[in-house]
Amino acid sequence: MENIMVNRADLIEKQLSLKEATQVVFGDGRSTTLTPSRWVPALCERSRRVSLNGQWTVTRWPFDIDEGALTSSDYDDANGEVVGQPGKVFYYDPEEDPATIENWDRVNLTHINDDDGAVIRRQVPLPEAWQGKRVYLRFEGIYPAGRVYCNGKLLGEHLSGLTPVEWDVTDVVKAGAKATVAVRLLRKHKHVQMDMPRHAVEFAGLSQGAFFHATEQTQMADYHLITELDESLREGSVSGEVTLRNHAAQPAEGTLEFCLLDENSQVVTTGAVDCALEPKSEQILPIAMQATGVRLWNDEYPNLYRVYLRLMVEGMERQKFCYRTGFRRFELQGQRATLNGNAVKFRGVNHLTFHPQFGMYTPEPWLRQCLTLMKRANVNAIRTHFLGPKCLAHLCDELGLYLLQELPIDWGHPYVHDPECLGPAMLRIEGGIRRDRHSPSVVVWSIGNENLPRNMEEHDDFFNHLHLFDELAKTLDPTRPTMFPPPGPANKIKGIFETRVGDIADIHYSFKLIREFNETNILVNPKTWEAQMETCTRKEAIARGWSGVWFSSEYGIGNMIPDLLNAPYASIIADKLEDALSGKNTQQVFIDRLREEWGYMRDDSTCLGGAYFPWMCSGAGNPWGWVRWGEDADWGVVTGELLPKPAFWGLRVLFSPVQFPDRLPWKKGQTEIEFPVTNHYNSIDLSQCTLRTMMAGGPPYMGMMRNWKDIPIFMSAGGNHHHSHPDLEQQQSGDAAERLGHRLPLHPSRSDRFPTDHRGYSRGSREVGRNRRFHADGS
Asked: Which CATH class is domain 218-316?
């Protein structure tokens, strides 16, 4: 039977209206299983939660008894192996050579038995006060998959390792009694490739926290509130819907109160709406709050507000839910990206979820330290490469980092054309967007990674499905743009500049296509991995939906093993390959390439920015000795112990939002230094910062920088102009000037410029060299 194209609108409507997993059969006989991804908001009060984090017992496959017995409440596991969860149950053996493993494949895990895994168990007491409540069991992440049991009852199976899952266990547990939770961990499943196991280094376990939580019988079942900022950048609003659900057999009446608080917990605005629900029914309540003179959110000033919802129903305890939000206006207009009315440039890195001890579980204190180090490196954006943990978005909200959150559909060339993949892909898209769509740091939904059809036979279905993913994302969140990161140069193709789907074009590693496109306004893209080509103009690409803005979600990549000082050959995916015998060390190769590639993105006004690949690499072993890396190389600029490698410092300087020339000629007799300055901040005027100039003041063999002077500088965000200030040497005391004067003909002196931001943090430095042996024209 001839394949029939999937009707995208119908399938999206089915996905978003489902109550339980459902198989959908298409007209040509092909099918997929749709699974809803929804959960009840967990209330603020600590008394309404019971954490499952801690010590779990583990029984590894192969099992001596059947799964039902292992997961029952009666099973005696007192003498079993104990593991901490969240954390690793399975992981790479750093001493195991993949060449010795039959059918080893890090992408599909074909070397792992289909039944391999474990049963992990934990027992916790539930509060007596939960009598008469609705009780739910939530897992924020079971990687790569698992079947979940509570008190011996199978609740269901979750085959998405990076998104949350929740079950109503009201009729399974008892208040005041212990509850036994068991997870049958699956080390692999049919769709595991979507969740990028090649970077997970065979991790299996809880990758995020798990907990019970309780609500009243009449509850806030769902919410979607959109925070917006008007064109004046002064008037903000929070509006949308809250869904109430009444599980009781009696009618319920009450009031939903809502308010907006600023960062000082001062009330900005409040409101209330009455509700009346019939037994076993739902009611959708509209919410609208207005705020004047709001403080804006960006990476420099991450001003946050807090939204509170409080439900009061007669005969029930009050229920309070809250979350943080921020007011910002991100726009793609006129082939430019702006945030809050000003140009914005994303100085990004790729974030691979990894912790040196816990694998895919990244404890919040460690992750906060990691993100703080990013800020110190002048990084202001993260592309997650695969869906990051829940706390990542919350920390980016707080610290001020733009998040391009990736929805996991990795290397889909073997499967995206097949309708069977649609259900699993839509589960991941819905789960990721519902979880993070209220975070102001999330600015772009990045859908999948490096997806291109294998051949023309699969081409039409493949792109129809990519467009379905795009439309599903926009249905769930109409406020954010999308992009589809394409493959880089490989096999027969020299690269892809993906404008065919999504709002923001994307390119990986090679910049040849975008350079040619910017010069000719004609784009030649491969249609498949067999390199059939198609041509379009810039005007045509924009007419079919492209914003005219582009981003590079992966560039860079080079071996950054800290104790490998001379390895220019390790940077192999580049438009300009470095000669292995050039004599340059790895750090210089890194700086030269970053200067070239990032400089091109920084200076192109149609470019939103890029994400250097990567910030950190996953691996297993001794960080001071032998490590088996996730993709056989350590490309990151920091270690898992959060120690900056040499490349970190090069990235920090080149990512500085204030740019000076690297070197300037300083002519003999010149009394002023003149140099161009460019301000790439989004909102900071340089008058809020300090430009400190230092002059060598000690003996030349010591290279000391003794004297400094603060220079006034004024420049609005996005500005650039030439700046001049007096030669510091002319301001030395007579004796000191004379000593310097005698030495300068023989030795160069140095003047360093240290721009510091509005908080006093150094953003990098530039050196100005002076040598009296310059030619007469100062060159």
From this structure: mainly beta
Q: Are strands 607-613 and 346-350 parallel, antiparallel or unpaired?
A: parallel
pTM listed for this prediction: 0.94
Delimiting residues of CATH 3.20.20.80 domain(s) in the chain: 340-654
Residues of CATH 2.60.120.260 domain(s) within the chain? 46-215
Q: Would you state the pLDDT for residue 733? A: 39
Q: pLDDT tens digits, residue range 475-525? A: 999 999 999 999 999 888 989 999 999 999 999 999 999 999 999 999 999
Which residue, among 258, 255, 248, 173, has the nearest Cα to 218 in the 3D structure?
A: 248
259-293 confidence digits (pLDDT tens): 999 999 999 999 999 999 999 999 999 999 999 99
Q: DSSP string of 152-205?
A: TEEEEEE--TTS-EEEE-TTT--TTSEEEEEEEEES--TTGGGG-GGGTTT-BE
> At 591, is the secondary structure helix, strand, or coil?
helix
- Regarding predicted confidence, which is higher, 730 or 7? 7
> If you write DSSP's letter for every residue of 368-396 in order, what string do you get?
HHHHHHHHHTT--EEE-SSPPPHHHHHHH
Which helix (H) or strand (E) covers residue 646, if one does? helix 646-654
**Per residue in 396-449, pLDDT tens?**
999 999 999 999 999 999 999 999 999 999 999 999 999 999 999 999 999 999
614/358 Cα distance (integer angstroms):
19
- The CATH number given to 46-215 is 2.60.120.260
pLDDT digits (tens, 9 = 90+) for 49-87: 999 999 999 999 999 999 999 999 999 999 999 999 999
Please report, as a single letter, which amino acid is at residue 569: Y
Residue 700, amino acid? P
User: Under a CB-based contact definition with an 8 Å cutoff, are residues 591 and 546 in contact?
Assistant: no
pLDDT at 32: 97
Structure tokens at 330: 């991100």
- Residue 683 carries which side chain, given as an amino acid letter? S
Beta strands in 316-368 (DSSP E): 319-325, 330-333, 336-339, 342-343, 346-350
Beta-sheet pairing, 305-313 with 281-292? unpaired
- Give residue for tokens 């919802």: 309
pLDDT, position 738? 30
Give the Cα separation of 621 and 462 in Å (integer).
39
Instruction: Give the span between the Cα atoms of 19 and 137, in whole angstroms.
Output: 17
Distances (CA, A) of 272 to 244, 261, 324: 14, 15, 19
Which pairing describes strands 381-383 and 330-333: parallel, antiparallel, or unpaired?
Answer: unpaired
The CA distance from 495 to 509, in Å, is 8
In the chain the first and final C-alpha atoms are separated, in Å, by 75
- Tell the CATH superfamily of the 659-770 domain: Immunoglobulins (2.60.40.10)
Query: What residues does CATH 2.60.40.10 cover in the chain?
Result: 218-316, 659-770
CA distances in angstroms from 40 to 86, 127, 304, 392, 724, listed in the order given: 22, 19, 24, 21, 60
Residue type, 218: T
Say which amino acid occupies 189. Answer: H
Q: Residue 572: which residues within 8 A CB-CB, separation 6 or more? A: none
- Residue 602's nearest CA partner among 347, 383, 244, 331 is 347
Cβ pair 135, 228 in contact under 8 A? no
Is the pLDDT assigned to residue 777 strictly greater than 50? Answer: no
pLDDT number for residue 258: 98
3-state secondary structure of 476: helix
What superfamily in CATH does domain 340-654 come from? Glycosidases (3.20.20.80)
Task: Quick: pLDDT tens for 337-363.
Answer: 999 999 999 999 999 999 999 999 999
Distance CA 115, CA 66 (A): 12
Query: Is the Cα torsion angle 64, 57, 50, 86 positive or negative in sign?
Result: negative
* Three-state DSSP class for residue 660: coil
Task: Indicate the length of the chain as a whole number.
Answer: 779
